[in-house]
Amino acid sequence: MGNPKAFLTIHRQEAGYRPIHDRIHDFGEVEQTLNSKDRRTQASRCMDCGVPFCHWACPLGNKPPEWNDALYKGDYELAYRLLNSTNPFPEFTGRICPALCEKACVLNLMEHEPTTNREDEAAITEMAFQENFVRIETPKRNGKKVAVIGAGPAGLAAANELNLRGYSVTLFDKNEAAGGLLRYGIPNFKLNKAIIDRRMEVLEKEGIEFRFGVTVEENKLPEGFDAYVIATGTPTARDLKIPGRELKGVHFALDMLAQQNRILAGIDFKKEELVSAKGKDVLVIGGGDTGSDCIGTSHRQGCKSVTQIEIMPKPVEGPEDPQNPWPNWPRTLKTTSSHEEGCTRRWNINSLEFIGKDGKLTGVKVQEIDWKPNPEGGRPIMVEKGKPEIIKCELVLLAMGFLKPEHAKFADNVFVTGDAASGASLVVRALAAGIRTAKDVDKYLQAK
User: Fold this and answer.
1) How far apart (Å, rounded) are the C-alpha atoms in residues 177 and 261?
2) CB atoms within 10 A of CB 215
3) Nearest-angstrom CA–CA distance, 448 and 446
4) SS3 of 223, please?
5) Which of the chain's termini has less CB crowding within 10 Å, N or C?
6) Is this structure's pTM higher than 0.90?
């Protein structure tokens, strides 16, 4: 390392977010960037540990010590080559990854000031595109064809890996553009869609064929391919089937998020089709990242107020989780940029009934609960606490996760990957799964 003792004198410095009063009026990315001098200084804090737990924690097997060293020395091209050798799309993870590597950083154990790997990753990749370090690969074709169904993170990663290995890849997707969750689930204020388009141009130039607006049934796969990769994600959101579910104003989270992203892309919707928070009291049911995205989107649409409720207990506050200690991911309270913009957050709240008038939502009856240990083991037992109450709202967004899809038995040349195989997970895990599956496809076809 160029400066193995930098962590002793240099503190962690994050780029931070745009001011709240500025960012809530548009859908531009909220995260700022450091200047190149400060970014290289942050990279110098990586101390090349004897055991790089960051590498262990990353599903992709990224090597932060190597590319942080190159970044510190100002060799952005080498940094990008090292980063891109394990991560096909670092511009995505550099923006929306929860950075498992940072939680496993030795500096997180010692001082709770891990190296800024995620931000460093984004900075390296932006410089790579700016300076034309992103090469167009022209692989030699091996004469075999593979169809990838689903252009989300896993499908894109599988298609990219197979294409580089010489296969002729056709990527099918039911939507009008590539990205899956990246494009239709994650708001623009976290990931500008021009970032996706930029990478798709590279993949097209490298020979991947995209077919959009095509719905492929799993029991009727397109003919003419030697192998198939199913990467259709988890399309079915978990519902809340309580009285009043049919009221106007109760929507799945992705009804709002996907529609808003399409509106920003120039697609028009009829007034009666709009899922809008403008002038409304909004209730988000579900305490995860999707719920957080609903909060930020509601503010930008001009909501009156936002409340977020979660049925599970409030996570422990602070950097350490006694139940899941370093270098594992700590299950601690997460406050996002959207939460900072204004939100009432409540835990241990169970939803009982959607209440409405003339077919329109006016509120939700909820019950504060507690969780008691189950004497027989397994899931704790829910018990009521206090009296039911009504949370006033005109819009409810259900952000309670997604159901793991079930698949019929496929032929030997059909491979399922990403969330379609594992259930909903992180983008970085979907990318890693897509790469693994591509290698499995290659091994299968080489054996044939």
Assistant:
1) 12
2) 10
3) 5
4) coil
5) C
6) yes
Which residue has 């709770």 as its token pair? 112
Task: Give the integer Cα–Cα distance in Å for 226 and 414.
Answer: 9
Separation of alpha carbons 41 and 13, rounded Å:
9
Band of residue 119 on the pLDDT scale cut at 50, 70, 90: very high
Task: State the pLDDT at residue 4.
Answer: 84
> From its phi and psi, is residue 325 left (phi > 0), alpha (psi between -120 and 50) or beta?
beta
Q: What is the dihedral of CA 16, 22, 26, 31, to 10 degrees?
A: -10
On whether the CB atoms of residues 95 and 29 are closer than 8 A, the answer is: yes
- Provide the residue type at 425 as one letter: S
Helices (H) and strands (E) in the chain, counts: 18, 14
- Average per-residue pLDDT in the chain? 97
User: How far apart are the C-alpha atoms of 148 and 160, rounded to whole Å?
Assistant: 10
Element (DSSP H or E) covering residue 222 = none
CA distance 20 to 147: 44
Contact 23, 67 (CB under 8 A): no
Contact yes or no for 403/412 (Cβ under 8 A) = no
Contact partners, residue 268, CB within 8 Å, separation at least 6: none
Q: Which of 82-91, 105-114, 222-231 shows the lowest mean pLDDT across its residues?
A: 105-114
Helices 153-164, 427-447: crossing angle, 10 deg rounding: 40
Q: Are 170 and 205 in contact (CB under 8 A)?
A: no
- Whether a cis peptide bond, with omega within 30° of 0, leads into 327 is yes
Q: Is 328:56 a contact under the CB 8 Å cutoff?
A: no
The kind and range of the H/E element at 170 are strand 168-173
- CB contact at 8 A, 97 and 427: yes
For the residues of 318-373, what is the DSSP string, one character each? SS--TTS-TTSPP-B----HHHHT--EEE-SEEEEEEEEETTEEEEEEEEEEEEE-
Reported as a single tens digit per residue, the pLDDT across 347-398 is: 999 999 999 999 999 999 999 999 999 998 888 999 999 899 999 999 999 9
Alpha-carbon span 434 to 169, nearest angstrom: 14
